[in-house]
Here is the input.
Amino acid sequence: MNASAPTHGVLRPIDPAHPDEALLQEAAALLRGGGLVAFPTETVYGLGAHALDAAAVRRIFSAKGRPAFNPLIVHVPDVATAKTLVTAWPEVADRLAARWWPGPLTLVLPKRAMVPDEVTAGRASVAIRIPAHPVARALLAAVGLPIAAPSANRFTELSPVTGAQVARSLGDRVAMILDGGRTPVGIESTVVDCTTTPPTLLRPGTITRAELEVVVGPLQDPAPVTDAEAPRAAPGMIARHYAPRAMVRLLDADALARAVATERQRGTEAPATREAEPVSAGANRPAAITWSEAGRAAAADLHVHLHLDASPLAYAAELYAALHAVDDAGCGTVLVEQVPMDPAWDGIRDRLARAAHP
Ligand code: AMP
Ligand code: MG
Here is the structure.
């Protein structure tokens, strides 16, 4: 495709309540032919390819600029299809699937040979999920194939939660973007490795550890890994990941208030002093993302201030949209109020820590 071609040609609106069958058939034909189709899931937008076609899967890696050691999640329409991809289906998988599929939970299981090494980055295990989003489900039904799909963004960038964000990140590197509006869950799926006993919580998400443990008993944590090893241990563990362009500073409400006061002082200094500063120092004021009343008050006079909900599910649903908004406003720095230590916030705390990693 011509690099200068307008990107809106690939962006195709689709009504999640009544997905257009002709458009789904068009998308399915592209996927069967080895093309890339981005689509909404309930977590974030996915960049999909025919999961059993190695050449198609390689196109995902080149479109994203994603290192080849980073495995993909395979999306399937039902448990029967999931079972065709694996050599074992332990009882814990049955229980987790029965409770959360379709939904924002990914299970890692021993793979069958038919799953290309490209999908699993050479691992003996494959990550599988049945998404709940009606467009993802309709697309899986239309194509009748498993779809490998990582988040639909360039490597290390923030995951997209709208079709327009996919278009901005991947533009004409995809054959089609099904634009079904904002994704409701807002952060990536919880990942549980069912090849270990007990199972391992590889990546926290909106399904909490406590909820999982009610169903399958105690989970183990991944063995601690260094930054150098992290990509191989579990790619979501790469320290800098899920990051906006703005520099993320994680602060409690008091520290956030002090940072804002410092900014205010800088803003009221004599113009001569300001001109003497490096251009970048005060070129644009920071943005803030808060959730508590103290945080709201601290950030009140910042120009770009997003105050999110104080409940973890609602906060997760808004977080990436807020970080995208900070980038869209051109802010160089975003002061993010640290979230509660409560385990219900684990998935959010994980993404914020990675976004803030230098
Ligand atoms: P992304 O699609 O960018 O959200 O990344 C997919 C995530 O799935 C990775 O970050 C891993 O946490 C996880 N994953 C995928 N395949 C495997 C696997 N075979 N073993 C362990 N984790 C996996
Ligand atoms: Mg990703």
Q: What stands out?
A: The first helix runs from residue 21 to 32.
